Each structure stands twice: as C-alpha cells, then as structure tokens.
Amino acid sequence: MEELVKEAKLKMDKSMEALRNELSKIRTGKATTALLDGIKVDYYGTMTPLKQVANVTVLDAHTLSVTPWDKSQIQIIDKAILASELGLNPISDGTNLKIPIPPLTEERRKDFVKLIKKFGEESKVAVRNIRRDANEHLKKKQKNDKLPEDALKQAEDKVQKLTDEHVATVDQILKHKEKEIMEV
Questions:
Q1: Residue 94, phi-psi category: left (phi > 0), alpha (psi -120 to 50), beta (remainder)
Q2: Domain with 79 in it
Q3: Which residues contact 166 (CB under 8 A, 6 or more apart)?
Q4: Is the pLDDT of residue 184 over 70?
Q5: Has residue 105 got a pLDDT over 80?
Q6: Both 67 and 9 in a single domain?
Q7: Is the sign of the CA dihedral 56, 58, 59, 63 positive or negative?
C-alpha cells in the first residue's frame, strides 16, 4: 500500500511540474527566455524548437536577444516569432534579433489571470483524479490481499493529506503568478 501512496505522490508532483511549466510560458511584462520555449522554426524542412537553432538570452528586463547559430535562418526565426500568438515584434540587425517585450495592458493582465486560474483548476482536477485512482487501487489491493480495514483507512488518509498539500501548492503558485502578472 505504501508503494501506491508513493506512486500517487509522484503523479501529483508531475502535475505540479506541468502547471509550473505552463505558467512559465505566460508573459508577465518581463523578459524571460521561457517565453520563446513553445516556438518551433522550420529548420531545413524540420520543425525544430527555437532554442535548438539559436541562443536566446535576456538583455534587460524588457528585451530578449536571439542569435541564430546559422545566420541564414534569421528571416525564418523572425517569421516564426511573428506568427506565434505572443504578440511580439522582433527587430533584426542582420545577425541578431532583439525582441522588445511590451508592457501588458490592464485588460490583457486580466485575461492572463483568467487563463492561469483555468490552468490551476485543471491541475486541481488532475490531482483529485490521481487521488480517486489511488483510492480505487488501494481498495482493490485491500480486497485481494485481505488486508485489515484500518490499513486501508491509513493509506487513504495519507493520499488525502497528499491531495490537500498539492491543492494548497496550486493555490500558492497561482497567487504568486497572479501577483506577478498584476504588478505594473
């Protein structure tokens, strides 16, 4: 039963990591290389992640720099960034791209807050689904191995405690990200 509880904890931790990963892609008005993680570039006929064809760095709080390994790819990278839904307009100097990160409008900030709350709710649902699955497995194991009822109850309590901790973590992550987004 301990193994089932550990497995549930691992799955819940992965759910938290997925949430953090999703939230890192949401713009807060500050430059971060994670903004460009989702962009893929047509690199000689193969869709390749931007960070595999160029060096992405933060110049200052509101500017990113993209330096392609292959200088002939600058136009393609420029078009890929423009085509993304990030609303960024790269400026090319022939060998590098500078990407100014525009400040967020109040309306856009509120849209992002709604979006992060949606991601948070999805994470909470995922954690609760993991709890449900773990409890079902525990009940099957208890039935098949004819384990005592109190062992099942203890394991279910551990799973519930894990669930509560992870839901609280989601709330903390969302609160922090919302504060970050609403900060002017």
A1: left
A2: 33-100
A3: 12, 13, 15, 16, 127
A4: no
A5: yes
A6: no
A7: positive
Here the tokens at position 115 are: 């979006």
| Burial of residue 181 (number of CB atoms within 10 Å: 0-12, 13-18, 19+) | buried
**Per-residue pLDDT for 73 more than 70?**
yes
Q: What is the DSSP letter of 103?
A: P
* 27 pLDDT above the threshold of 80: no
Number of neighbouring beta carbons within 10 Å of residue 38: 12
Q: How far apart are CA 141 and CA 93, in angstroms?
A: 64
Report d(CA 32, CA 30) in Å as an integer: 6
What does each C-alpha distance from 1 to 128, 136, 162 come to in angstroms?
19, 12, 15
pLDDT for residue 153: 92
CATH of the domain at 142: 1.10.132.20
Whether 79 and 131 map to the same domain: the answer is no
Torsion sign over Cα 17, 21, 27, 30: positive
Q: What is the mean pLDDT of residues 106-122?
A: 90
Say if CB 30 and CB 181 are below 8 A apart: no
Compute the average pLDDT of residues 149-164: 92
- Tokens, residue 158: 């551990």
